[in-house]
Design goal:
The protein is built from 23 helices and 54 strands. With 1022 residues, the protein is of the alpha+beta class. Strands 13, 18, 21, 22, 23, 24, 25 and 28 form an eight-stranded mixed sheet that branches. Strands 1, 6, 7, 8 and 10 form a five-stranded antiparallel sheet that branches. Strands 2, 3, 4, 5 and 9 form a five-stranded antiparallel sheet that branches. The chain starts with 18 loop residues before the first strand and ends in an 18-residue tail after the last strand.
């Protein structure tokens, strides 16, 4: 293409780093047709910033046919250089008509860190071959053209400029470590890093008593442990322990929560733990400021105002160029005049200014930039990527009610990169008063420049990076800023010393680190060792079940031995002079000694011996101190009086042609008792021994087991084996966490009633007050085991999960029979001031809600019932319907309320944003032509709050399908307005427990007689 431009240093945009040198290198390709015969060609070297460079050109492409490839190489990077040597360059490569430099095509601008092992960079597909000739004024003319390289060298001020971060060690490079991402917890990692580097907050967290806490349930202890590891570990650490203490499951880690809301919930939790400790009030001292909402008349001396606390400030981004503009918008006065005049008590309707002003800023100021906002025109939530600048030093004195210097320094910038539906979070932090910034991006920490912190996170537009750059929207921008007040910085950022950390925490984590070092050492040395399963006579004596011992559980000892050691070495450790027998697995899935290991093989290394004897199975040995050399039988004795089968001795087979009657005579002589013999073949297979047969005829050989018992024994060995074959250990876990966990050994043949009776005896409860549950899958819900008299234990412990052997039990306050025919209701009775009284009822499932209401009235006067879900009213219950007829009753909460005949409106609670609802909503009668100043007094009475507390609540009307809120003024009349709901804007001070399983019913206590209620005007019920 032909333009008025030529390739020059101006073709590369200026980067915000010190420029060390730059050049435009032109390399003439004088005979292109001859060059096509070569695979590649090097340009003459050229010098930039006292370093040698050259171009590498592939006329036929570098593994890419029909393309031209070209690379820039730093020759000095191939030489021996000091550690961490690197040179940072921005460059482009163009093809240019030799006679007319205005005819050219150029690549995109590339940036690269040239260093040892990474000496060249460029374009494998610079452009298609036809680009040389595809216009009326081609680049290739008279078989020649120029290759032009425009190169700028920049100073690396951070040590990380254009780094590829392979083998990057955050701790050694920066002194800090990152946090591992669980799935989508980058937003959490950003917040935690910000709190960690607020050193005063970290010290306050350490001051919370946690000696007896469980880190999986205590947020305080989990946060202490995390902060300690962040300070003393060398590698990035995980946050699973902390999120588990939040009560999150695996899926929560893959869901991005709201950072501002998470910050408040976390701080509320810590504040409650700090009460009564040296840390009490630390969070309020750090993060809490005060603002005044006011309405001030213009013509008369009247002002209505209230002071309220804030932990962060939400500032509008859209339409505001910088932070100052957003603050000016926040405190901007609104003139109330014309039809919107303010009703001032004693003065009537007046022109007035309405607004907010700050009375006190906190030492640590969290500013929430409203990058995510609701677009009314598009009817959806959108991300605002407009440019919005923020300074390193912020002066806020002009926004105070009584102006005074308020100088703040930027401490942290939390950044979101992406759009509304997907994105990534990271943060920039200045850990101390020095002007040195670091970027914390999950597990990677890197030094950062001031330009990266500020300019790259303002939002707005950016260059595409091409030679003829276009402007596109930046999707990476700041969404939360942390500022620290100048006079408080030294105290807030003072170093956290060892004596600031609780001793119990230091000791515990030191032990864990030592164990981790040992574990890693074992892992590193694992290849030097092997495991041997060893069975001895003592092992046999302790075993009373099938086979010789339990090889897979706690029977046979597992010995960790060096691969180059021998059985002679092992014999010395055992302090004996016995012999080792090799144990093999039989087809019937039993394990028996098969052959004695020769004295010669005892001197061979265990690794070589295993290769010789094993065929991929585990190395199992029997060590016998009796010194038998030939094949041996193992003898077990059954005692009917104790009902126990025990190892008796071994018996060496002298000759396979010897009759088995000899063995019987041998045993009867030793015991002095008439005996009968049985062979233990495998579990469930016990056979009589043919006494007239020889060992060979009876197929009895080395490792076989013979059981003997008195003649006509009762119980017998067969009955004993049948019992242990059906024996199983069941772990019983509580359906509710408050109860105990225990284990019982039961028979698989027990029926449901027998199992419940065993559980009842263990717990000391009545069997008819117990229910059992199983859990068919690991993550599935627990399902109730229905009582059936012929139902066996092996049938309701799912066979495919026999290894788990777990059942859940529930202790009921009523009998199972009552529970199956009735519904347990947990009722919360609300009086006219919203005071709660708990009431519990057991109602028949076919009972109507009218009868439920009658039962409530026996203890508390009550009126209407309605359901709520997610703190919004759903529908009024029909008192003539039964409990079992009402759908979704277990998914909603039931509430009662007192209403008057006529119209009424829902009143709900929320915290700043309409989707952050909380508490119990209620219905408020709408009185015709009543001013809101009077309605407000009725609301005050309903909430049961003091005038002072109620003044802190912002009251709004909610319209447009619960999406728009408008402040309610004293002179407004609700009966004339189109309002969906009244909203009470205040934080949720109640600490709500996890949702309970029982149905909750809320009722309103009244002192008036029941009146006829007209429900036809209730829009919520229609």
């Amino acid at each position: 293409m032909e333009t008025d431009e030529v390739l020059s240093l101006d073709s590369i945009k200026d980067y915000p780093f010190p420029l060390l040198a730059g050049t435009v290198f032109r390399w003439n390709i004088g005979s292109y047709s001859q060059l096509l015969r070569k695979e590649k060609e090097y340009s003459p070297p050229f010098e930039v910033n006292n370093m040698q460079w050259r171009l590498l050109f592939f006329p036929n492409g570098n593994k890419t046919p029909n393309t031209l490839s070209c690379f820039l190489e730093c020759l000095d990077a191939s030489k021996e250089q000091p550690k961490d040597w690197a040179v940072c360059g921005a460059f482009l490569i163009g093809l240019q008509n030799t006679k007319d430099p205005r005819i050219f095509k150029a690549s995109q601008i590339a940036t690269h860190r040239f260093e040892q092992g990474d000496t060249d960079w460029g374009f494998s597909a610079l452009m298609p071959v036809q680009a040389l000739t595809d216009s009326s004024k081609p680049i290739l003319e008279d078989d020649m053209f120029d290759i032009v390289c425009v190169l700028k060298i920049y100073q690396d001020t951070t040590g990380a400029l254009w780094h590829n971060f392979q083998n990057w060690d955050s701790k050694s490079k920066t002194g800090f470590i990152g946090l591992r991402n669980q799935g989508a917890t980058c937003y959490l990692n950003s917040l935690l890093q910000s709190l960690y580097f607020t050193n005063y907050f970290r010290k306050a967290t350490y001051a919370i008593p946690t000696t007896n806490d469980d880190p999986n349930k205590s947020v305080s202890l989990a946060l202490q442990r995390l902060f300690y590891n962040m300070q003393f570990q060398d590698q990035s650490v995980g946050t699973q322990e902390l999120t588990k203490s939040f009560g999150w499951d695996t899926m929560d880690a893959f869901y991005q929560h709201d950072v501002q809301e998470l910050n408040r919930v976390l701080q509320d939790n810590l504040e409650s733990k700090m009460k009564g400790t040296p840390a009490e009030g630390a969070i309020r001292k750090l993060f809490t400021g005060k603002m005044k909402s006011y309405i001030k008349c213009v013509e008369v001396d009247f002002e209505s105002s209230r002071i309220e606390d804030f932990y962060d400030i939400q500032l509008n981004v859209k339409g505001h160029k910088d932070l100052d503009a957003s603050f000016r918008d926040y405190v901007q006065k609104e003139l109330m005049n014309g039809e919107n005049k303010y009703f001032a008590e004693g003065f009537g309707l007046q022109d007035a200014n309405k607004g907010v002003i700050f009375t006190e800023f906190p030492p640590v100021l969290h500013l929430q930039l409203k990058r995510f906002d609701y677009d009314m025109e598009r009817d959806m939530l959108v991300k605002i990527n407009d440019r919005h600048a923020f300074p390193l030093v912020l002066e806020l004195g002009d926004y105070l009610e009584h102006p005074k210097p308020q100088r703040y320094h930027l401490h942290g910038v939390l950044v979101h990169s992406g759009d509304l539906n997907a994105g990534h979070y990271f943060t920039f932090i200045r850990p101390n008063v020095e002007n040195k910034w670091f970027k914390f991006d999950d597990d990677r920490v890197t030094p950062a420049s001031e330009f990266e912190v500020l300019d790259e996170n303002y939002g707005g537009e950016e260059h595409t990076g091409t030679q003829r750059a276009k402007m596109i929207k930046r999707l990476t921008n700041a969404y939360m800023l942390v500022y620290m007040r100048e006079e408080d910085r030294a105290e807030i950022l003072s170093p956290v010393e060892l004596n600031d950390i609780p001793e119990h925490l230091r000791n515990k984590l030191r032990e864990e680190r030592e164990l981790e070092v040992l574990r890693r050492k074992e892992m590193e040395e694992r290849h030097l060792y092997m495991n041997i399963k060893l069975c001895t006579r003592q092992t046999l004596s302790e075993h009373h079940g099938f086979d010789l011992c339990s090889w897979d559980q706690d029977g046979a000892k597992t010995l960790k031995v060096k691969r180059d050691s021998t059985l002679l070495d092992l014999k010395q450790e055992l302090k004996g002079n016995g012999r080792f027998w090799y144990v093999v697995g039989r087809q019937n899935k039993t394990y028996r000694p098969d052959s004695i290991i020769s004295l010669q093989d005892e001197q061979v290394s265990l690794e070589d011996l295993a290769k010789k004897l094993l065929k991929g199975s585990e190395f199992k040995l029997f060590y016998d101190t009796q010194g038998a050399e030939g094949p041996i039988l193992f003898l077990k004795s059954f005692n009917p009086s104790t009902g126990v089968l025990s190892f008796y001795d071994t018996y060496q087979i002298v000759s396979p042609n010897q009759k088995l009657s000899v063995l019987l005579q041998h045993l009867e002589a030793r015991t002095g008792t008439a005996l009968e013999l049985l062979e233990e073949v495998k579990p469930g297979m016990i056979e009589d021994v043919p006494l007239n047969a020889t060992f060979d005829q009876a197929e009895l050989g080395c490792g076989d087991i013979i059981c003997f018992q008195p003649k006509k024994a009762d119980p017998s060995v067969r009955q004993y084996f049948e019992e242990i074959q059906n024996r199983t250990t069941i772990t019983f876990k509580p359906y509710k966490e408050k109860d105990q966990e225990f284990q019982l050994v039961l028979s698989k043949k027990m029926n449901y009633d027998q199992v419940v009776e065993q559980v009842a005896q263990h717990l000391g409860h009545s069997a008819d007050h117990l229910r059992l549950y199983n859990q068919p899958t690991t993550y599935g819900p627990k399902s109730l085991v229905r009582r059936m008299t012929n139902l066996k234990l092996q049938e309701f412990v799912p066979l495919q999960y026999q290894n788990a052997q777990t059942l859940y039990y529930e202790v009921l306050e009523v009998s199972v029979h009552e529970l199956e025919t009735k519904q347990y209701l947990k009722i919360i009775c609300l009086d006219k001031h919203s005071k709660e009284t708990e009431l519990q009822l057991l109602c028949p499932k076919d009972a109507t809600f009218k009868s439920v209401l009658d039962q409530i009235r026996e203890k508390h006067p009550a009126n209407i019932l309605y359901t709520i879900s997610y703190s919004k009213i759903m529908s009024v219950l029909d008192l003539e319907k039964t409990i079992q007829e009402t759908p979704y009753l277990d998914q909603n909460t039931i509430v009662s309320d007192e209403i008057e005949e006529g119209q009424y409106i829902q009143v709900m609670h929320f915290d700043r944003e309409l989707f952050r609802v909380h508490g119990t909503p209620f219905l408020l009668p709408i009185r015709q032509d009543e001013l809101f100043s009077e309605t407000r007094q009725r609301l005050l009475g309903k909430t049961g709050l003091s005038e002072k507390e109620f003044n802190k609540i912002k009251i709004v009307s909610i319209t447009d399908n619960f999406t728009k809120q408008t402040p309610l003024e004293p002179d407004m009349v609700l009966s004339t307005m189109d309002v969906s709901c009244i909203g009470l804007d205040h934080s949720d001070k109640r600490k709500l427990a996890p949702t309970e399983k029982a149905i909750k019913i809320y009722v309103l206590l009244i002192t008036l007689e029941l009146v006829q209620i007209n429900l036809t005007s209730c829009e919520l019920c229609s």
